[in-house]
Amino acid sequence: QVQLVESGGGWVQPGGSLRLSCAASGFTFTNYAMRWYRQALGKEREFVALIGSAGDGTIYADSVKGRFTISRDNAKNMVYLHMNSLKPEDTAVYYCSTSITFTYWGQGTQVTVSS
Fold first, then answer.
1. For the chain, which residues score pLDDT lower than 50?
2. How far apart are CA 65 and CA 30, in angstroms?
3. For residue 57, what is the DSSP state?
C-alpha cells in the first residue's frame, strides 16, 4: 500500500533553516509528481510546493518562493523540502502528498519557528 513518511521537523529560530524528508513506498515513485502542503493551527491546509516526476519542474506557493526548495531522489524514493529564512508564519504541520487513483498523505511533521 502507498506510504508516505515525513521527518525532519522541529523547532527553529526565525531566519533559520530546516530540511524535511518524505520517504515514499508502495507505488512507482518515478511516475508521479510529489507535493508538500502545510496546515497551521486553526487554518486550512495549503499548498507549498510541487515537483514533477522526473524532478524537472517545480511550482511554489508565493509565500515560500525564493526561500523553500523542493527536490527528489528517484533512486531512493525520497522527496525533500529545504526551508531557509524561516518565519514564524511558516509554523505548521507539513505533509507530503501524491495523487494516484486517490490523494495520499503522510502523517505530517511539525515545524515551529519562534524565538
1. none
2. 25
3. -
